[in-house]
């Protein structure tokens, strides 16, 4: 643990982008939690007399076509992105870890069956199945999480399977089995801890991917319901005003870009931290 912390700060000392990304991500996490701590922020008042107003001291990010503060909408959109991304990644981990562990540890027909099922899902473009699911079942926060989780678990299963295949023949695993340790104990006591590092990196990148996917579904009108604000939905609403008031699209786009870029930078820093051989190579 001490070596990990030292490597992490060593990389941070060299990579200022990761430090900046950390502060940006912390800012958005605080923004996302504000509507939960102050419920009145979710009740965005209508100011029709200020409709389509440009950014000012009163409305820092302007007012949209419905007469609502863009700043408050972006704040609530951050909450939606936080909920969807965390629940989607959690569900994907819950499904992907045991399936990948079973496939990698036991092998044989179980591995073939799980691997072929993964290959079938990977044969589809990433957004095709979520779009089809949302089009069939309709929009909604829960449906978005389920739709994205049905394909999101695949990457975690592949990572865990590869790690189990790599470690199950190691000396410490063979020694544990020879001492009478059960398969479950060997899998999750001796092998699984070695999968935490790549899973943490994969989860960080997946958070960014889920946020983009949710925004894309909402932009197409297939995402969260009207009861929840989404950055993708804000971009969809701003299309009619791109020429007259481009700031309506600029600020949600900036929010989406800053969060996704920050997660990617932090994910790369974690990758370098968990892989000591990468230290010194840095980012090209």
UniProtKB/TrEMBL annotation:
What SUPFAM superfamilies does the database record attribute to this sequence? MetI-like (SSF161098)
Q: Which PROSITE patterns match?
A: ABC_TM1
Which example biological process does GO assign this protein?
transmembrane transport
Q: How does it sit in the membrane?
A: Multi-pass membrane protein
Q: Which GO terms describe its cellular component?
A: plasma membrane
Where in the numbering of this chain does the ABC transmembrane type-1 domain appear? 78-267
Q: Where are the transmembrane segments?
A: 17-38, 82-105, 117-136, 142-160, 199-227, 247-267
Location within or outside the cell: Cell membrane
- Superkingdom is Bacteria
Q: Does the keyword Transferase apply?
A: no
InterPro entries assigned to the protein according to its UniProt record, in alphabetical order = BP-dependent_transpt_permease, MetI-like, MetI-like_sf
UniProt keyword list: Cell membrane, Membrane, Transmembrane, Transmembrane helix, Transport
Q: What is its main location?
A: membrane
Tell me, what's a Pfam family for it?
A: BPD_transp_1
Could you say which protein family the record assigns here?
Belongs to the binding-protein-dependent transport system permease family.
Q: What is this protein called?
A: ABC transporter permease subunit
Its organism's taxonomic lineage begins at: Bacteria, Pseudomonadati, Bdellovibrionota, Oligoflexia, Silvanigrellales
């Amino acid at each position: 643990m001490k070596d990990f912390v030292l490597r992490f700060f060593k990389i941070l000392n060299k990579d200022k982008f990761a430090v900046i990304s950390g502060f940006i991500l912390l800012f958005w996490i605080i923004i996302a939690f504000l509507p939960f701590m102050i419920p009145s922020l979710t009740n965005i008042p209508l100011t029709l007399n200020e409709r389509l107003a440009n950014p000012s001291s009163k409305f820092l990010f302007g007012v949209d076509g419905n007469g609502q503060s863009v700043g408050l909408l972006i704040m609530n959109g951050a909450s939606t992105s936080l909920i969807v991304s965390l629940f989607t990644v959690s569900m994907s981990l819950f499904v992907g870890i045991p399936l990948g562990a079973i496939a990698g540890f036991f092998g044989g027909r179980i591995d073939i069956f799980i691997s072929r099922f993964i290959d079938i899902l990977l044969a589809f473009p990433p957004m095709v199945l979520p779009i089809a699911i949302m089009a069939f079942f309709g929009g909604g926060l829960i449906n978005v999480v389920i739709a994205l989780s049905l394909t999101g678990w695949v990457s975690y299963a592949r990572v865990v399977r590869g790690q189990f295949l790599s470690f199950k023949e190691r000396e410490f695993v063979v020694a544990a089995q020879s001492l009478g340790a059960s398969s479950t104990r060997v899998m999750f006591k001796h092998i699984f801890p070695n999968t935490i590092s790549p899973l943490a990196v994969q989860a960080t990148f997946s958070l960014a991917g889920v946020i983009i996917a949710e925004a894309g579904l909402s932009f197409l009108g297939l995402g969260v319901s009207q009861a929840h604000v989404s950055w993708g939905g804000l971009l969809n609403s701003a299309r009619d005003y791109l020429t007259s008031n481009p700031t309506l699209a600029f600020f949600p786009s900036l929010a989406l870009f800053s969060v996704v870029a920050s997660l990617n930078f932090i994910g790369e820093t974690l990758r370098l931290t968990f892989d000591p051989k990468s230290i010194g190579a840095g980012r090209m």
